[in-house]
Amino acid sequence: MAHAVVLLHRYTIALTEVAAATLGTDRTGNRDVQFLMTIHLEGPASPTRLAELTGAGRNTAGRALGRLESAGWTARTSNPYDARSVLLRLTPTGQRRIRAFMSRVSDLLESEQPLVKEILDLIDLNTARSTHVGTFDPYEAMAELTRAGAEYVEDVVAALRRFGPHEASDRFTLALLYDRGAQRPGRLAEEIHFAPSGMSGVLTRLEDASLVSRTHDQGSDDRRTVIVTLTPLGSSAAEAMIDVFGRHADEIATALTLTLGATRS
User: Fold this and answer.
1) How confident is the model at residue 219, as a pLDDT?
2) Structural domain for 164, as ranges
3) Band of the pLDDT at 222, cuts 50, 70, 90?
4) What is the mean pLDDT of residues 210-225?
5) What distances in angstroms separate CA 133 from CA 69, 123, 141, 142, 235, one per listed residue?
6) pTM of the full predicted structure?
7) How far apart are CA 242 and CA 32, in angstroms?
8) Which of 62, 63, 161, 179 has the fewest CB atoms within 10 Å, i.e. is most exposed?
9) How many domains is the chain partitioned into structurally?
10) How confident is the model at residue 242 (pLDDT cuts 50, 70, 90)?
């Protein structure tokens, strides 16, 4: 299951890069994208209704919708059926942003199908094997994928809170080290798509939390070569993350399966 977590993180990095390029670096979270997809699919809806559709708690929904409204991607309009509430709709700017995002995502969903199939094979659940891959609107597939992703990440963050790391790059590094054993910082940076300086910051955070250790590679001819290994506490953190993944594997597999049938509308 550890390798499935690593591959899922790799898939997430690809999606995040598309979101950063089309939506901006501060709009790459699962919940922001999920609410954009939901408003696009459902049309104008109240904040309460959007929270119900996405499965988000009231506070989580309020923060995500506030970010989208502040960015000018959604706007409030009166509710003709209830004078006490408002409806949220996409603005022209929001519509342009989501079209640009989905144009890139549609290409990604097609190109990453081998990776998705590998993840499903590793999960090896009845859902992954038996869910019929029909034809799905990519917007619907993306809405379901971000919902499953948001719920998984929220539970992972809660499970790892006692260990300290809270960034996605921290979690990916822990999963990589648990799956593959000791690694050089440069190799970790390549996997996470980080510059060496950024990777150094990740490793410093994890080392300060006593989750990894950096030592000189005694087997290398260059004594300056550093390798990164998990500490026993780091292994416990990785196992906590993998345990959460196992609890969410069914929903993640279902969402990933939908992406295999997503086609351009």
Assistant:
1) 64
2) 1-265
3) low
4) 77
5) 35, 17, 11, 15, 36
6) 0.79
7) 25
8) 161
9) 1
10) very high
Distance CA 65, CA 67 (A): 5
Q: What is the CATH number of the domain that holds 13?
A: 1.10.10.10
Q: What is the pLDDT of residue 109?
A: 85
pLDDT at 178 over 50: yes
